[in-house]
Hints:
- The complex is a heterodimer of chains A (152) and B (439).
- Chain A has a domain at 45-123: 3-Layer(aba) Sandwich (Rossmann fold).
- Chain A is built from five helices and five strands; from the N terminus they run βαβαβαβαβα.
- Chain A has helices at 22-33, 47-57, 71-83, 107-116, 127-144; strands at residues 9-14, 37-40, 61-66, 93-97, 120-123.
- With 439 residues, chain B is α/β, with parallel strands linked by helices.
- Chain B has a single domain (18-329), classed as TIM Barrel (Alpha-Beta Barrel).
- The chains are: A alpha/beta (152), B alpha/beta (439).
Amino acid sequence: MATSYSGLTVLVAGGTSDSHTWNLVFLQIMLQEAGYQVVNIGPCVPEQLLVDRCRDVTPDLVVIGSVNGHGYQDGELAILALRAEPDLAALPAVIGGKLGVEGKQDEVLRARLLDAGFDAVFDDGDLDSFLRFVADLRVGSSADEPAGAVSA
Amino acid sequence: MTAAALDLVRPTSDVATGSFGGFVALAAGAGQLVVQPRMGMSDPATMRRGLELTKYAAATTVGTITLDSYTRLGDEAAARRAIAAGTSLNGYPIVSHPESTTRTVLAAVLDDSFPVQVRHGSARPEEIIRALTKVGLSATEGGPVSYCLPYGRTPLRESVDCWTRSCELLVELAEPGQTPHLECFGGCMLGQLCPPSLLVAISLLEALFFTRHGLNSVSLSYAQQTEPALDQEAILALRRLAAEFLPAGTQWHVVLYTYMGVFPSSARGARRLLEAAAELAVRTRTERLIVKTAAEAHRIPTIEDNVRALEYAAAAAAATDPLSGLLGTAAPDSEVYHQARDLIRAVLDLGDNLGDSLCEAFRRGYLDVPYCLHPDNAGETRSFIDEGGRLRWAALGRMPIDPAHHTIPPGGAAGLSSGRLLAELTTVARTYDQPSYDH
């Protein structure tokens, strides 16, 4: 469905071993309210499915939500799979949630996710930073591309 | 509610080693609520210590081995890699650890007084069933709908076929003298914001599915929701429907899950919610309670967190008068009962093969879980929490509920927004975290 010319399409996905849904439903509704088109492919997304769906949907941003404690492992495999594909190597991709088994984020593992190719890693509940990141992406995207180039 | 509908169906079989349903029935007969943790650690020595401390907690307990996400999804290679690398998993990888290792974990704890159940979440649990029966266990949980739709991408048809084989495997592979036991997870369905009538209907249908595939000992689940009076109606409806629909002679009990949604973040709020669950269990003659811990909102609970929760719940249960509260006044013809019965009847009317009927029911939208993203779920229903705190239907989609059984509150249903969704998801947490709240 077409939205305004500046609208971005965001693909929302759960980590490959993560069965949680509410975080993904919330992200979907929040992003829709902010004016983005959302394709929510749900929980437990294997790497190949993520790659395939990114090619089908051609999103402007991939958001991986993970809250089951396997976020560091699952996230790294997911981003390595995306970055291994030349056509998806530059696709903006972020991850956020409760990423580890411990209560707070592990800086070493967080840096590893960034090294592996994520554009940003968000703490659990840090929605302001996340929405700012998406808004900046929209500004960048509108400035870089003619309106017609934005995928529907 | 007649007294007969609340009476326990007593086991006719003996209590074999680790016989789960028999143990729970004996405890219920003695007036003891069985309490159980969710607990799974990847390190065998830690898992063993968790079971030992559960067994010797000051409560009537059964043990739990919760499996990790990789094992749940059948990714044995990933679980093995994690074990080899020394990475912590979020549960015990029963398929990947050698049989002898798991036998050592169980050796000091598993006996007549302490059955152990394997909890997992797999839509394709055959290897898990093989692994657990190999080490002498015979109790587990799940279901073709409840372990499929909310948790991943397995098609419902495949899950139904896998669960058919898994029921048969469990019956076939349980050691002689054991009474294999299956608990349905249908009373949870995404944990929150699924109205009780659908939880009760799915729970009953899954338990019935288990009995049709050879199980004689089952438990029916219900997850605590937003309002104690509504929860009580739901559990009493579940008991009445179990007595109506399960085959005569089935050994069954009800298991209550302490709230499965966003948990209070204060230790006091978390304890009060657990206490409310224990009271609800006692007042509805629920035989078994799965606890949550005060750490729930913050991290995966430790063994000690779990033991504290077990003992707290047991003490709260012991302090509750089973004849107190609303039990006597709960209407036998509650809306929950009638809605659930409408759904159950509609599914059973689809044919003799319950697995086929469940698939067809979801295809037609007769059963439709609100907010569930699974491709086999119609996604046409919506729920909301009304001003009185009751969880209600905002949209029934194509579910065949008689309009006479669906009252719409004054003001109608609330619209959906991310703010409202977040508020509803955290209603229970906020309520119990309030310093002045007294349930």
